[in-house]
Design goal:
Number of domains: 1
Number of helices: 5
Order of helices and strands: HHHHH
Radius of gyration: 18 Å
Shape: flat
Structural class: mainly alpha
Number of strands: 0
Length: 147
């Protein structure tokens, strides 16, 4: 256990915060916009998407989330787990976008066009989160080396 844990409890605090924001932004986008699109197409599952997005928006106001937010993670595999989660999210969103873009008539159908926008932007948000996480990881490593 001691070989997995570092001496400092807040080793990856910046990475933890940046990754949480990145994942939340992408999931809120999919939840709120996806829910709104489903409701505009008279699909009642849109309420589930809107509720998910709203819960994610309200999550930072809760005490357990604040405790999680203020506590760093010193596990050496934590950055790897964040990287894997980021890559999985990008792969998932980009594959959905690619499936829709493979249809030559996608831009003739309003619903398909909006779906491509939803998942395309989610892919870009996930890619941006990956870049931000890599920057946060490098800054955390520099701060750790300075100590």
């Amino acid at each position: 256990m001691s070989e997995i844990m570092d001496d400092h409890n807040d080793t990856y605090l910046r990475l933890k915060r940046v990754s949480t924001v990145g994942f939340s932004v992408a999931l809120i986008w999919v939840g709120l916009l996806g829910g709104a699109l489903l409701l505009s197409w008279d699909d009642s599952f849109g309420w589930l998407g809107l509720a998910t997005g709203a819960i994610l928006l309200l999550l930072p106001l809760t005490t357990p989330f604040r405790r999680y937010w203020n506590k760093g993670d010193s596990s050496r595999i934590y950055p790897l787990l964040i990287l894997v989660a980021n890559l999985a999210m990008i792969l998932m969103y980009a594959s959905i976008t690619a499936v829709f873009l493979s249809d030559p008539f996608v831009f003739y159908n309003k619903q398909d066009k909006m779906t491509v926008i939803l998942w395309g932007v989610a892919s870009l948000l996930s890619l941006g989160a990956l870049v931000a996480n890599l920057i946060a990881y490098r800054l955390d490593r520099k701060a750790q080396e300075a100590v």
